[in-house]
Design goal:
The structure holds 2 protein chains of 2 kinds. By secondary structure, chain A is an all-alpha fold. Helix content of chain A is 74%, strand content 3%. Chain A has a two-stranded antiparallel ribbon with strand order 1-2. In chain A, strand 1 (58-64) and strand 2 form a beta hairpin. Chain A starts with a helix and ends with a helix. The termini of chain B are far apart. The chains are: A mainly alpha, B mainly alpha. At the A-B interface, helix 5, helix 6, helix 7, helix 13 and helix 15 of A face strand 1, helix 6, helix 7, strand 3 and helix 23 of B.
Chain lengths: 515, 680
Amino acid sequence: MGFPILSVTLAVPLAAAIVCLFLNAPAARTLALAATLADLALGIVLWANYDIGGAQWQFTERADLFAGFQYALGIDGIALMLIVLSVFLMPICILASWDAIDRRVGEYMAAFLLMETLMIGVFCAQDLFLFYIMFEAGLIPMYLIIGVWGGANRIYASYKFFLYTLLGSVLMLIAMLWMVNVAGTTSIPALMQYDFAPQAQTWLWLAFFASFAVKMPMWPAHTWLPDAHVQAPTAGSVILAGVLLKMGGYGFIRFSLPMFPEASAQFMWLIFGLSMAAVVITSLIALVQHDMKKLIAYSSVAHMAIVTAGLFAFNVQGLEGAMVMMLSHGLVSGALFLCVGVIYDRLHTREIDRYGGLSINMPMYALFFMVFTMASIGLPGTSGFVAEFISLVGVYEASSLATLVLTTGIILGAAYMLYLYWRVAFGVQRNADAAAMRDLTGREWLMLAPIAAAVLWMGVYPESFLAPMRKDIATLDARLAGAAPTGDARLAPGKPRSYPANAIAHEAAAAGEAE
Amino acid sequence: MNSIVLIVFAPLVAAIVGGLGNRMLGATVVKSITTGALFLSAALSWPIFLAFVAGGAEATVVPVMDWVRSGDLVFDWALRVDALTAVMLVVITTVSALVHLYSWGYMEEDPDQPRFFAYLSLFTFAMLMLVTADNLVQMFFGWEGVGLASYLLIGFWFRKPSANAAAIKAFVVNRVGDLGFILGIFGTYLVFGTVSIPEILAAAPGMSGATIGFLGWRVQTMDLLCILLFIGAMGKSAQLGLHTWLPDAMEGPTPVSALIHAATMVTAGVFMVCRLSPMFETAPVALAMVTIVGAATCIFAATVGTTQWDIKRVIAYSTCSQLGYMFFAAGVGAYGAAMFHLFTHAFFKALLFLGAGSVIHAMHHEQDMRYYGALRREIPLTFWAMMAGTLAITGVGIYWLQAGFAGFHSKDAILEAAFARGTESGNFAFFMGAFAALLTSFYSWRLIFLTFFGEARWAASEHIQHAVHGQHEPLDAENEDLGPSHEHSLPANPEGTAGYHPHESPLSMLIPLGLLALGAIFAGWVFSPTFLDDAEFWGGSIYYNEGLIHAMHAVPLWVKLTATVVMLIGLFAAWLAYIRDPDLSRRGAEQLGPVYRLFCNKWYFDEIYHVIFVKPAFWLGRLFWRRGDVGLIDRFGPDGAAWVVAQGAGAAKRFQSGYVTSYALVMLLGLVAAVTWVLF
C-alpha cells in the first residue's frame, strides 16, 4: 500500500480546523487558506495520477475497525471529479470570507475546514456507515455556518433545512441497516454488485430517494433551499450550491442506480415527472424574485432537475450529461453566488432593485457576471451547454415528452437570468451608493477568474472531465442495461422514396421508370 | 496554416484583445485592431469564393480540436469550406469589414467605442463558426454565439429601458426557435446516430419512409426532424410568428442593424435550410411548411412596411419580407435562388441601412420620416447610395437585356421558381410573392420620396429643434432610435427647415456606402449565371434541382414580366401618394381605416403575445411562489411540523435553538443502533 493520499487529503483540513479554533482572526484566515490550497494541490495530484481506464477503484485504503465496521476509502472517476470540484471551490470560499466574516473567525474557518473533510469523505468513503456519517455530519457545519454567521432570519432557515433532511436520513439509515443485514457486507463496491430482490428494491429505493431528493433538492422538497441560501453567508451559499447539492446526485449514481436498477426503472416516470415540474415551476418562480440569492437558488432547483432526469434516462449520455451538469452547476452557481456576494459586501442588500447600471462603474464585474449568466443559460462554449446538451440527448432517447418540457428551461432560463442581468448591470444608475461602488479588487479577481477559466475550459474541451468518468459510467450503464426501459421513439424504417420531394415532373418520371 | 483558420479566428482574437484591453489600449487602437482583422478576413475570403466561381476548388474540412465524446455521441470543432460556405464567407466578412469602417464615423461621439467594436468582431467570429460548421452542434454554437452578440449589440445603449427590453426579447424569442432546433438535433442524433452534417445528408434519403414516435404520436421521421430544425430557422430569421423581435432590434445602433439584422445573422436560417437541403428534400410536409411560412411572412411584413414612419423600421420589415422570399425559394427547391437572393440582399440591404444611418446622422438622430423631406440636395451622395439600394431591392431591370440591379436577378428567379414548381404551396408563394413585390416597390419608393423629395418638414422634429437651439445633451447618442413611441404632436405648420443645415457624412461612412452600392448594382448581373445555373459551382453543397432550373426557363412570359410590372405599379402608387398629391396618403389611410390600423400596429402581434405569454408567465410565477411554495408546501410541510411540535411541546423556541445538538443526537443514536445491529 502506497502513500495514503486520500487519508492525507482528509486529514489536512481536519487538523487545520482544530488549530483554527485556537487562533486569532488573521492567523486563522491564513491557515485556512493554506490548508485548502494544500488540499487543492493534493486534488490535482489525484487527478494527474488517476489511471484512466485502469482499476475501477483507485487509491484504496482500508483498515478494519470494530465489528465489521471499516475505514475504507477509494475513488472512481465519478468521485474523483466531485472531489476535484470540492477542493477547487474551497480556497475560493475562504477568499470570499476574508473580509466578510469579522466575528468568531477561528470558529468559522474551523467549520469550513471540517466541512471540507466531510465532503471529501462522502465522495471517497467505501463503507456504507462511513459514508452515512460523513453524509449526515457534513450538514452540521453547514447548520452552524447558516445559524451563527447567517442573516436575520437564519434560525428559521436552518430549522427548515434540519426538518427536511432529518426525515430523509432516518429512512435512509433504516434502509442501510436492512441492506447490511441481508447482504452481509458494508462495502459499497460489493453492494453495487449485489442483486437485491425486486420487491425489496422498491422500498429501499424509496428510502434512499427520500434522502437524496431532499439534498438535490427535487421539487417539491426544495423549499428549504431558497431560505438556506438567502440566510447563508456568501461562502456558505457557494459550498451549498457547489458541493452539498451534488451529494444528492452522487447518492443516486452511487446507490440508487447500481444497487436498485429494477426499482430505478420502475420509478423513472416519478423522477421525470418531478424533474419536469421542477424546471417549469421553479423557472417561473425565479422570474418574479426580487432577491438575487433567491432567484439563483430557484434556478439551481431547475438545473438540478436536468441532473435527475439525465441520471434516470438509463443511457451513457444521460449519465455523463448529469455528471457534467453537476460539475458545471457547481462552478456556475457558485460563481453566481460569489457575484452576488461581491456587491452584497459593498451595499449590504440583495434587493435587485437597489442596483442598476453596474456596468458603468464596475465593468470587469459586469463582464464576469455576464460570463456566468451565459453559462447558466447554457450558451454553447460554456460548461452549461455541454451539460444540458449531453444530458438532454440522453433523456430524448428515453422520452420525447420529458425532453420537450425540460428543454423549455432554455427559454425560461434565458428570461429570468437576462431579466436579472438587466436590472443589476444594465439600465441607469438608480442609487448614488450603488453607483459609487468600486470595481473588483485583486482578491475578488482571484475568486472569479479561475472559475471563469474552468467554465470555458469545460465548455470548449470537456474531454478532460469526461475521460476519467467514461469507464465508470460505461460500467454503470452495463449494469443498468437489463432494466433500461425502451424509449418512446421506436424508429420504424419504411420504404424510402426514390426521388427528392421537389423533383420536377420529368425527373420524377425518369426516377419512377428506373425503379 | 490554412487561410480559413485565420479568417475565422482573427476576428475572435481582435474581439478578445479589444474587449479586455478596452481602456488600456484606447479607442483608436481597438478600432484599428478589429477593423484590421476584419479587412484581413475579407481579403482572404474573396480568393476562396472566386476559386469556387472559377471552378476546380474542392470542399475541405480543417479539423481544429476534439469537442465532446460521450458514448456514440461524438463531435469536434472543425472548419468546413465548400461553395455554400464560400458564399457566406464573402458576405459576412465583406459586410462586416465595411460596417466596422462605417462605425468609425457613425459612432465617433460615443464614449464606449472599444466595447462596440469588440462586440462587432465577436459577432463576426460566431457567424463564421456557424457557416463553417461541419456538424449540427457547432452550427448551434455559432447560432447561439450570434444570438449573444445580437443581444449585446441591441442593448448596446444599455441605459435605455427600451434597448434592454428589445435585447432580452430578441434573445428569448430566438430561444423559442432554438427549442425546436435543439430538439431537432436530439432527434437527428437518435435517428442517425451522428450529428455530422455530411453523414446525416448521406443517410437521409434512406430514412424518408420511416416513422417515429413523438409525444405519443407516430409521425414521418424526416418531416418531424426538418420541421423541428426549421422552427429554429424561423426564430433566427424572424419568420411569421417568431418575427416580433426583429423590428424591436432596431434599438441597436444602425451599423448593427445593417450587419446583423439585415445582411448576416437573420439569414442564418436560410443558410441552415440550404445546408441541410438534401435532408429537407426527403421531407415534403416540412418543405410545404417552409414554403407557406416564407410566403406568409413575405406578404405580412410587406403590408406592415407600407405604414411605418420610422425609417429603420420600414427597412426592418422589408428585411423580414425579403427573408420570406428566400425561404419560399428554398421550400420549392430553388436553393440556388435562395442563396442568390441572400447574397444580393446582403449588399443592398446593408446599403439601405447604412444609408439610413447616414440620413439619421445628418438629421441629428431624427428617425421619423415625417420630419424628413427635401434632403436630396443636402446630402446628395447618401441620396444616390440610397437610390442604388432602392433600385436593387425593387428589382429594376430590363428582361430582354437580362440586365438590371441586384434584386432584379434574384427576385425574378425566386418568383419563376415558385411558379415553375407548380404545386399548390408553390402557386400560393408565387402570388403572395408577386403582391409583396408590389408592396416592396411601394414602401421603398415611399421611403425615398418622404426622405429626399417634397418639402422640408424638419421644423417639427425635437431632435432638429435641439440641434438648432443648441440644447444638445451630451447623451444624445443614447437618444437615438426612440422609435415611433415618442409621438410628437405635429404643430400646425410642420413645414420648414427651422434653419437647420444637414451635413453629408464623413468619408469613413461614404466609402462603405459606395462599395456596397457597387454590389447592389452589379452583384446580380455578374453572379447570376453562377448561382442559378451552375451545378458545378455548388458541387453538391446544396441540393441542385436540375429539373426545376429547366422548368424555370420554360415559364410563360407573363410570369417573367410579373416582377417588373408590379414594381412599376408600386412605384406609380408611391409617386401618386407622396409626390403628386401628398395628402392622398392621409386620405387613403382614413378610407381604409381598420385595415390601415391593423398594418400600422403590426397586426397586433406584440399585444397578443403580451397577453398570452408574458403576463401569464409572471402571473404563474407569483402563483407558484406565493400559493405553491409558501402557501402549500411550507404551510403543510416544515411550518406545519413546527406547529405540531409547538402544540405538543409548547416550547418551539427551545426546540428551534437546540436543533443542531438534537440532530447530532439523533444521528449518533442511529449509529449506535447500526453498530449494535451488526454486532449482534
